[in-house]
Amino acid sequence: MTEKKKDNLTKVMDYLKHEDPFSKGVAFCPGCGLELLLRFIPQVMGNDIVITGTPSCSAPVLLGQNNQSWHTLSYFGTLMTGAAANATGLARYYRKAGIKNTVVCFNGDGTAADIGFGNLSGAAERNEPFIYICYDNEGYMNTGIQKSGTTPFGATTTTTPFGSASKGKNLRRMNLALKMAMHKIPYAATATLSDLDDLAKKLLKAKEAKKRGFAFLHVFAPCTTGWGFAPENTIEVCRRAVKTNYFPLWEAENGKIRMTKTVKKPKPVSTYTELIKKFAHLSQEDLQILQDDVDYEYCMLGGLSLLEGECRLPASLED
Ligand SMILES: Cc1ncc(C[n+]2csc(CCOP(=O)(O)OP(=O)(O)O)c2C)c(N)n1
Ligand code: SF4
Ligand SMILES: [Mg+2]
């Protein structure tokens, strides 16, 4: 291991201050990005969190099976349509009862970006005091890998297959994190599993920001089974997503955007897609469309972060 890698590991270990509340060998596929994320959150944030979430790949583990539980946290299962509305009720109840804890509404992209977006947006607008974490595996994985609003251009899913009538998704993905930042909430950020110290800092910042209202984290969490890559490549997939600017790392406090990692010489997006089977059929032309979309989103983000210094919030809303 190089000295730099050792340093990074030490930095991450410093954040792991709490027990892992999950049992070993839970019901996720080998190499699942979601599992790494779920184990990491309480180890950094503490076990005084109450998780609430919807039917998804996370639910079998979070809900438990029969009368057995896979973990020692409190969990409240909700519907995909009303996840953030339920979290609102929970957070308000705890506040009223004087119970000090942190409600974490933990959902996939299908709930966050599509089916439950309306009440997510409403909770952000009302600045409800809880943390919403969207783990993005770019599709409805638990029901058989259907496309969602965050599925990227060209990716094959069971509803956007590759064949004579379709070449994968023919639409571009939405940028959920940017949409949430535009609610001007106390905290919004992107993160992923190749940059654990960045993720840990953002989890702690979200916990702090929750004292002032709503916090949103959008975490890129690759899915071995739905995307088609080797389980040992999960972290490499995340790393390349960052190095190609496919998934840039940034944060926004009260809507002010700041990059938390800048890639000096971004690699072409093909160095990311080459690891993943759902992109294997893409032609040079298709790859260019995906590259243009990545460049466009990054350019937009760069513009917003450059303006950071010049854009002041009204004084009454500043901390
Ligand atoms: C309103 C509603 N529509 C559809 C379903 C069926 N359903 C259960 S899990 C799931 C997939 C959820 O996708 P996502 O939120 O991205 O989580 P993932 O499975 O990818 O972890 C769907 C569509 C449902 N439970 N409720
Ligand atoms: S289908 Fe994907 S997201 Fe679901 S458990 Fe398996 S690897 Fe994880
Ligand atoms: Mg999903």
Description:
- With 319 residues, the chain is of the alpha/beta class.
- The protein has one domain: Thiamin diphosphate (ThDP)-binding fold, Pyr/PP domains (Rossmann fold, 3-Layer(aba) Sandwich), CATH 3.40.50.
- Helix content is 39%, strand content 13%.
- It contains twelve helices and eight strands.
- The chain has helices at 3-15, 33-45, 59-63, 83-97, 109-115, 117-125, 176-181, 196-209, 224-227, 234-243, 270-273, 284-306, and strands at residues 49-53, 74-77, 102-108, 131-136, 187-192, 215-220, 250-253, 256-259.
- The protein has an eight-stranded mixed beta sheet with strand order 2-1-3-4-6-5-7-8, with helices on both faces.
- It is globular, with a radius of gyration of 19 Å.
- The chain starts with a helix and ends in a 13-residue tail after the last helix.
- The mean pLDDT is 94.
- Magnesium ion (MG) binds next to helix 5.
Summed up, the helix count is: 12
Order of helices and strands: HHEHEHEHHEHEHEHHEEHH
Q: What is the overall silhouette?
A: globular
The CATH architecture name reads 3-Layer(aba) Sandwich
